[in-house]
Specification:
Blueprint lengths: L1 E7 L4 E7 L5 E5 L6 H15 L2 E6 L5 H4 L2 H8 L3 E4 L12 H5 L11 E3 L4 E4 L2 E7 L8 E4 L3 E5 L2 E2 L2 E2 L9 H12 L7 E4 L5 E2 H7 L1 H4 L11
Parallel strand pairs: 3-4, 4-5, 5-6, 10-13
Antiparallel strand pairs: 1-2, 2-3, 7-8, 8-9, 9-10, 11-12, 13-14
The structure holds zinc ion (ZN) (2 copies).
Length: about 220
């Protein structure tokens, strides 16, 4: 499984093109472009250069900075859009007016298939396992491969996702991280939704929200 990270959009979203070296079948995770033109110049250009066949478009969650490029990738590749069932209703910019404030110009088509805990996504000889990791948002997922995990806005290098948006919960987010992510092998590479890539070992050692989560809990959830 080969991974290419392309940082796109007004909020610096990490979009991942992931593919099977043998078959060139690929998935595009979180194509959060600000404009159609940006999508063409970044991800679509990359896919064409590598001669990849995109089998699925996958959103780690429904925020527009992760879904705004779904339409562009779907138009070019005809690949279906996959998202957790709880976030599927969020696709499109309706109800996410903040996204147009940041200049996102593209609304997403509806989901073609919804995901839930325990699903597996196959492309070429590669498999990604779907883990439901709510807390940043209700329908947040992480996608685990054999030596890496794509976590969206659940976990960042030295930090965690915001929990003050609708559907966010600090307690739920910490539980998702402790039960689903920290239990992965130390060597797993963590591909985050924003900012640098990290590892499970590094976050277990250094991430203050994993070491002492009670220090940062918001009062209103007590
Ligand atoms: Zn988000
Ligand atoms: Zn985000």
């Amino acid at each position: 499984m080969i991974v290419k990270m392309l940082t796109v959009g007004a909020l610096g979203t990490n979009c991942y093109v992931v593919w099977c070296e043998k078959t060139k079948e690929a998935v595009v995770i979180d194509p959060g472009f600000s404009t159609e033109e940006e999508g063409k110049e970044t991800v679509l250009h990359f896919i064409e250069t590598k001669d990849l066949h995109v089998k699925y478009i996958i959103n780690t969650h429904g925020h527009a900075d992760h879904t705004s490029g779904n339409a562009v990738v779907k138009k070019a590749t005809n690949a279906p859009i996959l998202i957790h069932e709880l976030d599927a209703p969020l696709l499109g910019l309706s109800g996410q007016d903040w996204a147009s404030m940041f200049g996102y110009q593209i609304a997403s088509p509806p989901a073609d298939k919804t995901l839930r805990e325990g699903d597996t996504i196959h492309f070429g000889k590669c498999t990604l396992a779907v883990m439901h990791t709510p807390g940043h948002i209700r329908g947040g997922i992480s996608l685990a491969g054999t030596n890496c995990v794509f976590v969206g806005d659940t976990l960042f290098q030295g930090s965690i996702g915001r929990t003050d948006f609708p559907g966010g919960s600090y307690k739920t987010l910490i539980r998702s991280i402790k039960e689903k992510l920290v239990t992965l092998p130390d060597t797993f590479i963590v591909y985050t939704g924003h900012g640098p890539t990290t590892t499970i070992a590094q976050e277990k050692r250094n991430n203050p929200f994993i070491l002492t989560p009670e220090l940062y809990a918001p009062d209103e959830e007590e």
